[in-house]
Amino acid sequence: MPTSPLLSRLWRPRPAKKHWREHTVQRWLVLQQGANPSTDYYISPRLALTGLPVVYRHLDRDLPHAQDLEPGTGVVIVRYLNGAWVRALHARRAMLSSVVYFMDDDLLQPSQWAGLPKLYVKKLNQYCRPYLADIRLLASGYWVSTQELYDRYHFHNARVVEPLPLTSDAVSAERFRASGHAPSSPIRLFYHGTAAHHAEIEWLHEVIATVLHRCSHVHFEIIGNHEVNQRYRNLPRTRILHPMSWLNYLSHCRALDGHIGLAPLLPSAFNAGRSYSKAYDIGRCGATGIYSAAGPYRQLISHAQNGMLLANEPGLWIETLLGLCQNPTELDRLRLRAGLLMQSQHAPADTLATHHALDYSERTSKSARLSTRADFSHAGPDESDRQTR
User: Fold this and answer.
1) pTM exceeding 0.90
2) 280, 339 Cβ separation under 8 angstroms
3) Which of 137, 268, 314, 380 has the most CB within a 10 Å radius?
4) Quick one: average pLDDT of 54-77?
5) Which domain, by its residues, includes 99?
6) How many domains does the chain fold into?
7) Residues 30 and 129 grouped into a single domain
8) Can you tell me the distance from the alpha carbon of 389 to that of 379, in angstroms, rounded to the nearest whole number?
9) Position 111 confidence tier, pLDDT thresholds 50, 70, 90
């Protein structure tokens, strides 16, 4: 829960000044900052399941219009808000069927932003901090990406929505076919983090430097800014890519013949709220992954089955990478199993539609979890986020 007294008062679980009763949604409006992974992983697949029309508006480039906020509209706010849309939502709130706020990072507690890159904090101060009270007054529901975020806020009208693989990533087994490589054939490792993963980027350096030194057939790719370039550019067989937009990142992944994607996650309050969507990024590259065991990935990854779950010990990561890079048969087995993650079926089509057909009081007595998957099952935000999140 928030540590600041002001935030504690603001986010104390209590009804908003206006009790918004949700009605049956007839159409959806999604407010987002352009194409981004949050919408693609969490929002679009579920709204598509409702069978209702969905309109996407760019938060900064599209001005509010009355036809976007007609009676019967359900609005989904993806992470961010600005003044123009806040005013429009307040003005037409009474005729909207639903307003849902979605977050997949802890965006509503500035005390949790300590240690994040300055550029990211600047963005949060522009698009989140000024609208904390507005979100509480407007929202009739909250969707969060992890149980950790759900537990932090205790919103009575919140639910956990889990990431789903993109339908465009439901690739054939041919994408993950066994390579038949000899032990000396090139192996491609990669880490597609962002500036928000500065600690992980620094932590990985020792691991990558050692593996590259000991295995001359291993190549490494990392995405990063000038600081990352300076840190990694002297390592052999290393390619450093400039941060890219989400759409360009998707295209890059689908053209990359990757073998092992790396997903370390070091302990921090902010990281504790992260989900496992990066596993889908890794799978899209045609690779299996090595993941921090103390994190969200164990909800999706079975150790030594469709990936590796390891403690955050550099020596253990080095040993595991060396073993896989020298055992192409085992590596191909893991890649094939990881490919199945990309073919996972979406939740039943009536899950979200039924939720919005129910009366508010009836829904609040139901389970807070949206996903119906029995086993639980980020690189690439939009152009501005890609360098920060």
Assistant:
1) no
2) no
3) 380
4) 96
5) 5-164+346-363
6) 2
7) yes
8) 8
9) confident
